[in-house]
Amino acid sequence: MNPPENQKPPKGDPNDRKKARLAEKLRANLQRRKVQARSRRDGAADSRPEGLLRDNGDEA
């Protein structure tokens, strides 16, 4: 006999658990990236000169 059509799948459905786990990882990753971007934005100005330095041709 087949189960009734209106019966919900069990709460432990592997697809639901996987979706929830992936959603949580995505939220954590986005939060980490936001913090990283804010720290770069709030950091001190870079003191390096613009562009690349020319090679003087000196042998090291």
From TrEMBL:
Region (Disordered) residue spans: 27-60
Highest taxon in the source lineage: Bacteria
Residue spans of biased composition, Basic and acidic residues class: 39-60
Protein name, UniProt field: Uncharacterized protein
Organism: Aquamicrobium aerolatum DSM 21857
Higher taxonomy: Bacteria, Pseudomonadati, Pseudomonadota, Alphaproteobacteria, Hyphomicrobiales
